[in-house]
């Protein structure tokens, strides 16, 4: 059981007199009972009035009416001295006792001078219903929720001022008050609002939930209250490209930790004055955690890039593997956006055959998240029916961590290719037969000229594990290669003006070029094969 004792009396009286709401008073009295904060605001105020009026013996108690637990009582002790108020310079100043009418006038009617109304108006049923209407209208699938709140940065300044006020009052009683002893505003707010949101939405609050309901509060009237910190602690406020203001909550907190108490008191009045207006809820947003879909794709077109081909803002080809797959996933999952990744990539004129290339797609903020194995099979069929340029297999839901397996040891994996090769000089079958005997051929590949605009200049060591030649005619043969992943096959054939050594041209002692290239297998055992 949490209770207010005689040591809390001057704190309650002082904060009531300066315009602090009943719930913030409980916070600064270090009351940790969640049930007390959920009591109706007016009931809490009346209980605090009774606490101040009561002059009974030490063991007498004043009840706090709560549902769970059924009753909270405040332990009373005799008081001998009235509270003191702190002036703007931090000196103690005697103030008159607070009567119940003053307390009600300052704390029940006025906007709280500490929380700026967040623990007042925004704990009421009307606001909870407003939040839930926003959630329901967004049409998300979810089985639990996590609630987050963004507070105005100047609220931290007011919190610091109130803490210093209370700490000095406690010091008169010979009692310490660390900042961490106070119940944090966000914590108290969630204690109050979680049960209401849970009841209204019909699902439990869960700190690990992937579905987030967030509220962003602002208080334009007091926005200027942080500015003195920029002068006192300029190194804490640095412009950032993605931030509209340097006065972020984290920057303000950092400055408050750095500034000396006496410097703070010179610039900020305490107790802080009560504002005229409540905070405003700038945004009520919903966000579902990303869903990840994996599979393998075959690419049958020699005129289809893996990702959109755009040069200098101009699109070169109308579609891509990424788009042919993702457009259907986006529509079914009702996601905001997506991120595509794969185990390597093929050129626009290269086919991917065999079991295909592993890929994964991150679907950002999906509205629909519940899909059965049959649903995924149907979605796979929809993708395959939509185009003859690609085909997808083993389509399935995976976790974020599982995607890492696609990239694990990527350069140690092997890939199998089939290349159609042309030579300038006539060849016979016996001229290329020796290629079949070459094993573990080491290459030095300087970054190809064709990718130098997007890849750093470097010399990469790659290995051709095996080769098997297939004679066609005097100027053509097919070469089947098993290579280390990351090997530039085209450059291995034509040499890239000597940037890849050795190469087929140098091995055959003639000019060679590649006419067609197919990826026959990508030896990555992921995602798990499905019976589809």
UniProtKB/TrEMBL annotation:
GO terms for cellular component: mitochondrion; nucleus. One of its GO terms (molecular function) is RNA binding. Gene3D superfamilies: 1.10.10.2050, 3.30.70.2510, 3.30.70.3190. Residues 292-523 form the Pus10-like C-terminal domain. InterPro entries: PsdUridine_synth_cat_dom_sf, Pus10-like, Pus10-like_C, Pus10_N_euk. It is found in: Cytoplasm; Mitochondrion; Nucleus. This is tRNA pseudouridine synthase Pus10.
């Amino acid at each position: 059981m949490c209770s207010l004792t005689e040591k809390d009396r001057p704190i309650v009286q002082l904060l009531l007199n300066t315009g602090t709401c009943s719930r913030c008073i409980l916070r600064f009295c270090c009351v940790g009972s969640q049930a007390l904060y959920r009591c109706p605001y007016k009931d809490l105020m009346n209980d605090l009035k009774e606490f101040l009026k009561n002059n009974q013996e030490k063991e007498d108690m004043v009840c706090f009416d709560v549902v769970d637990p059924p009753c909270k009582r405040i332990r009373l002790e005799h008081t001998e001295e009235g509270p003191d108020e702190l002036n703007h310079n931090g000196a103690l100043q005697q103030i008159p006792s607070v009567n119940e009418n003053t307390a009600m006038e300052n704390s029940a009617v006025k906007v709280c001078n500490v929380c700026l109304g967040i623990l007042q108006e925004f704990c009421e049923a009307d606001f909870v219903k407003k939040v839930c209407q926003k959630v329901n209208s967004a049409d998300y699938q979810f089985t639990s929720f996590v609630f987050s709140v963004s507070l105005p940065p100047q609220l931290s300044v007011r919190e610091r001022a109130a803490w210093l006020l209370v700490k000095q009052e406690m010091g008169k009683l010979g009692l310490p008050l660390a900042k961490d002893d106070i119940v944090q505003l966000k914590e108290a707010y969630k204690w109050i609002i979680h049960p209401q949101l849970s009841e209204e939405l019909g699902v439990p609050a869960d700190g690990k939930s992937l579905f987030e309901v967030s509220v962003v509060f602002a208080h334009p009237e007091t926005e200027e209250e942080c500015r003195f910190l920029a002068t006192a602690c300029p190194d804490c406020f640095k412009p950032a490209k993605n931030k509209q203001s340097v006065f972020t909550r984290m920057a303000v907190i950092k400055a408050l930790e750095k500034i000396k108490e006496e410097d703070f008191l010179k610039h900020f009045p305490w107790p802080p004055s009560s504002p005229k207006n409540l905070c405003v809820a700038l945004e009520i947003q919903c966000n579902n955690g990303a869903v990840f879909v994996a599979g393998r794709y075959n690419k049958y077109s020699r005129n289809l890039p893996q990702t959109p081909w755009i040069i200098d803002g101009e699109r070169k080809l109308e579609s891509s593997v990424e788009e042919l797959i993702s457009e259907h996933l986006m529509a079914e999952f009702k996601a905001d956006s997506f991120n595509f990744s794969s185990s390597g990539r093929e050129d626009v004129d290269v086919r991917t055959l065999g079991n295909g290339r592993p890929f994964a797609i991150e679907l950002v903020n999906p509205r629909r998240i519940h899909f059965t194995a049959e649903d995924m099979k149907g979605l796979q069929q929809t993708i395959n029916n939509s185009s003859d340029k690609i085909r997808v297999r083993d389509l399935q839901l995976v976790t974020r961590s599982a995607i890492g397996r696609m990239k694990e040891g990527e350069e140690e994996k092997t890939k199998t290719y089939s290349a159609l090769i042309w030579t300038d000089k006539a060849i016979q079958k016996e001229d290329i037969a020796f290629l079949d005997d070459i094993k573990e051929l080491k290459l030095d590949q300087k970054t190809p000229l064709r990718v130098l605009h997007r890849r750093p200049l470097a010399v990469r060591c790659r290995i051709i594990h095996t080769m098997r030649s297939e004679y066609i005619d005097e100027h053509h043969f097919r070469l089947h290669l098993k290579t280390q992943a990351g090997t530039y096959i085209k450059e291995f054939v034509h040499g890239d003006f000597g940037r890849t050594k050795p190469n087929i041209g140098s091995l055959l002692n003639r000019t060679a070029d590649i006419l067609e290239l197919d990826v026959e297998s990508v030896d990555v055992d992921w995602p798990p094969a499905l019976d589809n």
